[in-house]
Amino acid sequence: MEKEMAPTKERWILVFILLITLLVAYWDRVNVSVLLADPKFLADMGIKGQPVQMGLLMTLFLIAYGVANVCLSPIGDYIGPRKAMSLSILLWTIAVALGGLAPTFFVMLLSRVILGVGEGMHWPMQSSFVKNWFPPSERGKANAMWLIGLMGGPALAMPFFTWVIGNWGWRPSFWVLGVLGLIPLALLWFYVTDHPRQHKRVNKAELEYIEAGLKVEAEQEAHMKTETLGERLKSFVGNYRFWLLTLNYFCIASVWWGTMAWLPSYLKAARGFSWAAMGAWSSLPYILGGVSILFFGHLADKLGRRAPFVAVGHIGSALGIYFGAHAPDNMSAALLISVGIASIAVGLPSSWSILQRIVPGKAIGAGAGMMNGLANGGSAFSPVLIGFFIGLTGGYVGGLMFLVGLAVLGAVCMTILSLQKY
């Protein structure tokens, strides 16, 4: 009797490629965070001593990113996720090339907008690939694998770009990004297809396994009543708990993007760390954040309560950033602020779990899009507002206290939901 061939594992190779793509995407985002600590870059761009203009580099990126996420993601439905993601990487390449050549601050801002458009189109395609390639029973694990890039990207990028800029200067950092972008582009174009049936290296056993799971899901969805967008929105927009959760997520995103934009500059300019030490300390929050996501996400599932974990995450963030900003010695300041930033990651998985409980199943797409869009759209102004408070108060403490206030607001929102047993 002929032995059955074991299923191939091409779907897991796909997830690894998605992880590589997200890592490169985050490197493209955060190199300006290190550049804001480089006096030569600030002088060449004419923004030395102008914190509001410095904050605009991240804020304009985030605005373009949010708009593209909503408006351009349907492109993938027409041309497929492989072509759409490849197009987005081409836009990244144009953006970083323009950034490396930028003669003026205006051109640098333009490059950040183009980068935001490209990356905004990229993010939804990650989910499209997982939806097409994985049965529902494996999607949690598949999503967790590529989402590691959220923390791994900044953790690796901060010390790497500190080394590149310190040794070669700020313009070569953009050339490095351009070369790195070719790696996921080649992997996507030559090793990935939109659907497993199109892939030459997927054998019959793996294909049957994937399609059996997708068939069950398709049959379940076929029996669901079709609802209009208005009916779906009506099912949750009148629920004040949804708005408390969205306000909480806005606070999480604001602390996340605000500290990502300003942490290297704070450590170098305000705390006097050396260039190399700044790069090392800038990666610590994201290493700790990755541990926080894995540990507290599992613990929340085990205990069945999630809102208290999000509230504690906000409180830890507020305390860490507050006492770090006022710490007398530099080492304590860096460590406390790192713990504060990592604490905000405690609330990431639990916030999405609470959303899935509050919003009805048929409306989860609309609910997730609204929460993510409003939160990230609002948080786009966090980096430039931090710059405003730095300019207003004459020091970084004012900007950090703005983040402390947001964390306290998030804690209040989630304390209310905690009392309601969420």
The assembly state of the depicted protein chains is: single chain
What's the alpha carbon Rg, rounded to whole Å? 22 Å
Q: What is the residue-averaged pLDDT?
A: 88
* Tally of helical segments: 19
Note the run of SSEs as H and E: HHHHHHHHHHHHHHHHHHH
State the end-to-end CA separation: 55 Å
Low-confidence spans: pLDDT under 50, at least 5 residues? none
What structural category do the secondary elements indicate? mainly alpha
Total number of strands: 0
Question: What key attributes describe this structure?
Answer:
422 residues; mainly alpha; 19 helices
Task: Draw up the topology in text.
Elements lengths: L9 H26 L3 H7 L5 H21 L3 H5 L1 H21 L3 H29 L2 H12 L1 H20 L1 H22 L12 H19 L6 H6 L5 H31 L4 H29 L3 H20 L3 H15 L2 H12 L5 H16 L2 H12 L2 H24 L3
Report on the architecture of this protein.
The structure is a single chain. This protein has about 425 residues and is mostly helical. Helix content is about 80%, strand content about 0%. The protein has helices at about 10-35, 40-45, 50-70, 75-80, 80-100, 105-135, 135-145, 150-170, 170-190, 205-220, 230-235, 240-270, 275-305, 305-325, 330-345, 345-360, 365-380, 380-395, 395-420. The termini are far apart. The mean pLDDT is about 90.
